[in-house]
Fold this sequence. Notes:
By secondary structure, the chain is an alpha/beta fold. Helices cover 48% and strands 17% of the residues. It has one domain (2-142): 3-Layer(aba) Sandwich (Ribose 5-phosphate Isomerase B, Chain: A). It has a 5-stranded parallel β-sheet with strand order 2-1-3-5-4, sandwiched between helices. The longest helix has 13 residues, at 12-24.
Amino acid sequence: MTVAIGSDHGGFELKELVKKQLEEKGYTVKDMGCHDQSSCDYPVFGRAVAKAVADGSCEKGVVICTTGIGISITANKVKGIRCALCADTTTAKLTRLHNDANVLAMGAGIVGPNLAREIVDTFFDTAFSGQERHQRRIDLIEE
């Protein structure tokens, strides 16, 4: 699986940690930036990740800023993206089971490295349930 990942300066350190984790799990990771801790604008990187997932060049994405809010809003502006902001493993599991989320957002100032690792594992290890009611709701979102 190919995963797009991106962050702003506030999420840079956590992005690097998550990138390494995903690579260790055998995923191909496409780093959409940022590439250091210099001040930058999260919409640039959230949009780049979302577009890579939406156009099919990557199957899933991860976006990170300080809170996860702005970058998740940006990602969700791209048609076909269902980006979920997760700060715990329960929401990471349920957004995959129920919403078939294709982009994970996290806030580096909200979750620490250990929790982030658990959230990433849960998100990537959980498959969409495929239940009709959940698919119907996803179809309504896409309309």
